[in-house]
Amino acid sequence: MKKYYYILLLLAFKISAQSVNETIINNIKSQVTICLTKIPIGSEKSFGFDSRNDFNNCKLGDPIKVITISDNKWLELNEWRVPVILNGNYKLFFTVQKNNDTFEIVDLGGSDLAQEIQTININSKPIKYLIRLFKINIDFVSQEYATNPEKELITVPLKSAKKYLKTKDIFIKKSTYSLRNFLDINK
User: Fold this and answer.
1) pLDDT in tens, 15-43
2) Neighbour-count burial for 170-182, b at 16+ CB within 10 Å, e otherwise
3) Worst-scoring range by mean pLDDT, 73-87, 92-106, 149-163, 172-186?
């Protein structure tokens, strides 16, 4: 009986995550062109575009939930990064937040981060979480996260994290990290 309870709980969580992602996309798709036109004229290339004509051909990728560490535990932020895709390539991210039961785009940018995340493959599944350690300004990505501080997560350090970890001579060769490992890094 307990086994079925856990399966139902897992299914409910998966459906809930899919539902949130669909809601995000549905809420922001009408904002895409308007937000992209806020890119200053002549700055299109620094945001990954060849010209302003590209804005009309963009699609949205799967939202990536932003999490961090606060008070020695995982903290889900009211924030997602949504890839803006042109011809199959990530160009930049929209930062999306939920305000008054509606998701809205609050910022755009991160072209280098978007392009880096597109190249990452964890077991052929999409990236679901961006783990941002604000204190030291480094990022990791993962397909999962857990409230259990000892659970190891399959996690990929991004360039910012690799550079930082290398200077600190910290376990760069690991591909799984627990909350405890992140707490040690974030000191």
Assistant:
1) 345 688 999 999 999 999 999 999 999 99
2) eeeeeeebbbebb
3) 172-186
Q: Are 160 and 137 in contact (CB under 8 A)?
A: yes
Closest CA to 127 of 117, 114, 137, 115: 117
User: Among residues 7, 104, 87, 6, which one has the least CA distance to residue 49?
Assistant: 87
Single out the residue of 102, 63, 65, 107 nearest to residue 83, CA to CA. 63
**CB-CB neighbours of 133 under 10 Å:** 18
**Sign of the alpha-carbon dihedral angle for 160, 78, 155, 143:** negative
pTM of the model as a whole: 0.82
Q: Compute the distance between CA of residue 104 and CA of residue 166 in angstroms, rounded to an integer.
A: 37
CB neighbour class for 15 (10 Å; exposed up to 12, middle 13-18, buried from 19)? exposed
